[in-house]
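Hi team, as promised in this morning's meeting, here are the two structures we talked about. I've kept the exact order from the run log so nobody has to guess. The first one is mostly here for context; it's the second one we should focus on when we meet again. Sequence first, then the predicted structure tokens.
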Amino acid sequence: MNLLTLNCHSWQEENQMEKIQHLAQTIKEKAYDVIALQEVSQSIDAPLVRENIKENNYGLVLLQELEKLGVQDYQLVWDFAHMGYDTYEEGLAILTRLPLVKSHSFFVSKGTDTDYWKTRKIVGVTVEYAGRELSFYTCHLGWWTDEEEPARYQIEQLLHEAKGCGTPFFLMGDFNNSAHIKGEGYELLTVEHGLHDTYLLAEEQDSGITVRGKIAGWDDNKQDLRIDLILASDQVDVASSQVIFNGENKEVVSDHFGVEVRVRL
């Protein structure tokens, strides 16, 4: 099974359409089974296409670019989390080629006001793979030191929902908690709650770095960070974990690099 997670920073990138096209070409090449995307935005005033998805929804535009390449087997699941940059409805998305059993969407922040940028929601899917059901959640969490919307609370809410689903699960996304910092969100997930970091399980791995220097939300950062992760509820056989869209393994498409993981299930 091939997995990809990417914080898209959508509609905030220069040469945005070229980057979407590059992402679509890579998806065609790699044939990911599940793709978790964060910061998947649409204009507040764009026309509705279906349900709550509007005409310029980044995920929908990506699907359209895939269709131009002859790739028509992905389903899009998206939901709105909060307003971003005043004019965008920012959400999260999952694209999957696997049979969809059900979708999930729930708040993990203390507040649920979608006009407030710190409001956090999780989007997930349960799919069928090799005769079993598996769940995948695309995650964009807050910061450990934020007293108003602490990451600890959000992680606890996320795990309560994921564990309650009753299936093995993967958490994929931008956790805004560095794997290099002891005693914070990463250790809460992996040490206290026993989730398995697919990067550490991988037979082949690179540096794992997904953020270099200052980006949105990390305005004072001067370090290399590993904050984009794929975590598993069960110990799994991981063939490889590679950073992608970092200028070395494919062109840069966002202020975050992506992570692709190949799991033997």
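And here is the second protein, the one for discussion:
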Amino acid sequence: MDTSKNEKQDSSKLDLKDKRILLVEDNEINMEVAEFYLDAVHANVDKAWNGLEAVEKVKEQPNQYSLILMDIMMPKMNGDEAAKCIRKINPSIPIVAMSAQSEYSIDQTIMNDSISKPIDEQKLNHILSKYVA
């Protein structure tokens, strides 16, 4: 049974206009790709270019975000360190690791899930449906 059409239809129904997502990524192209997919589902996107900036944004508004998409390898503060800090501020925000490393395994005490880079639209929509929709 081919379910690919049904999955695609379901993801096209995704509308996150009332949700705010923090996108944390130090690579401009990866940021643009992820933001493009998030814009397609009408999510409100805040951007942070490193882990330290992400922690500061969550400190400023601890209950603002429905989801954080967190790159792992970044300057100033990596994704795992940033997620640990964010968990101390608001432990209930879902944090999804984004990694280009195939061997990256998530620490489930700090990350809820992971998605590989380059970001695949259907996989991202699945993550969004699981944690935000």
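Starting points for discussion:
The beta strands are 20-24, 44-48, 67-71, 95-99, 113-116.
The two ends are 26 Å apart (CA to CA).
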